[in-house]
Design a protein that fits this description.
Elements (H helix, E strand, L loop, with lengths): L2 H25 L2 H10 L3 H8 L11 H13 L12 H7 L6 H13 L2 H8 L10 E5 L2 E5 L1 H17 L8 E5 L5 H9 L4 E6 L1 H15 L4 E3 L11 E5 L12 E5 L7 H9 L7 E7 L7 H10 L3 E4 L6 E5 L1
Parallel strand pairs: 3-4, 3-7, 4-6, 5-6, 7-8
Antiparallel strand pairs: 1-2, 8-10, 9-10
Helix pairs in contact: 2-10, 3-10, 6-8, 7-9
The chain binds S-adenosylmethionine.
Length: 321
């Protein structure tokens, strides 16, 4: 077989693979559907008990108070399977800008992660029904989403600038984890990581549902004061229960979350000394409707973090340590 025909065969094979992948994702993943159907009915009771002590209201900014109130109504008694298509989720935590920004981000992600890791890192899931984008790699195509590539890009910048010893990042605390996408990426990349996401009771429940559907409910633990921290697994922790746990992190992450929390919340994280973490991966606004957003960068700089402007997102920065 000459080089030409083997390329034609390879292209045809890749074409078939992509069609199979997209149609599987479009027609749904029966395992994730079944898990969702199994778990969704406990969502309301979980939210009710997690909200027993309410949110830490002094920690909330007005925008997040409104988003939590409105979403509670929309996601009652549970979020729909396609919850990522909800307008409030879309507006507050789904980055979707196919084109030049996507190309830049995926090139950087490819530089940082070996081809073998890449597929498991950025492959999308059916649950939530994300907007899919096809990405080509040396081993063929992957169905991903821009939001997932965007999250993997944050991780890539952290690895490139902070250059941590990856094996030393055993416990990660994330403040404000959205629907749990970064926790999912990190868990696929480094299985066995102890990952704690602190968020509002509503978002803790959304993360619990999403991540349990993706990984199975044994892999995700809901911390409710009585339940101990589970090492080597994903722990979701409503902010109202955070003071019951003694967290000892190697890495503290917060992308546009501590910056969107109140000054009181930022002071709390500072009093906890970034939950003991010596490493930081932070993203925040320099100018925005959140009056204390930029303070996150100032505090991180004092802790020794390098500041990096995000040139394709004007007025936004990373702080990396
Ligand atoms: C803009 S979203 C960012 C989500 C995710 N980090 C990302 O980059 O896509 C802000 C996140 O912060 C959370 N959040 C807002 N106020 C919070 C608070 N007081 N305590 C903990 N999390 C909070 C929200 O629920 C949401 O998960």
């Amino acid at each position: 077989m000459n080089g030409n025909s083997s390329r034609i065969l390879k292209d045809a094979w890749n074409g078939l693979r992509v069609r199979a992948l997209s149609s599987r994702l479009r027609s749904g993943n029966p395992v994730q559907r079944a898990r969702y159907d199994d778990l969704k009915s406990t969502f309301a009771a979980r939210l009710y008990s997690a909200s027993g002590e309410g949110e830490v209201s002094g920690f909330m900014t007005p925008l997040w108070e409104t988003v939590n109130r409105d979403l509670r109504r929309s996601f009652s008694p549970y979020p729909p399977y396609a919850f990522l298509r909800h307008r409030l989720i879309g507006r507050t935590m789904v980055f979707h800008s196919p084109g030049l920004i996507f190309e830049r981000e995926i090139e950087e992600v490819k530089r940082q992660f070996a081809d073998g890791d890449l597929a498991s890192l950025i492959r999308e899931d059916d649950v939530g029904k994300p907007h899919l984008i096809e990405a080509s790699t040396e081993n063929g195509s992957i169905m991903t989403s821009h939001n997932t590539v965007h999250h993997a890009y944050h991780l890539s910048r952290f690895l490139a600038v902070a250059r941590p010893d990856i094996d030393s990042l055993r416990t990660i605390v994330e403040w404000g984890g959205g629907y749990g996408n970064l926790a999912k990426i990190v868990t696929r990349w480094r299985p066995g990581t102890t990952y704690v996401i602190i968020d509002t009771p509503l978002f803790s429940c959304i993360q619990w549902l999403y991540l349990s559907v993706v990984f199975g409910s044994d892999s995700v633990v809901f911390l409710d004061r009585r339940t101990p921290l589970a090492f080597g697994r994903i722990n979701v922790l409503p902010n109202s229960f955070a003071d019951s746990y003694d967290l000892n992190a190697d890495l503290f992450i917060s992308t546009w979350a501590l910056s969107e929390s109140s000054r009181e919340a930022q002071d709390y994280v500072l009093t906890e000394n970034w939950f003991g973490a010596k490493r930081l991966l932070l993203a925040y606004q320099v100018h925005s409707e959140f009056p204390d957003a930029h303070r996150v960068g100032l505090l991180a700089r004092e802790a020794g973090a390098a500041i990096e402007r995000i040139d394709f997102l004007p007025q936004n920065e990373y702080a990396l340590l």
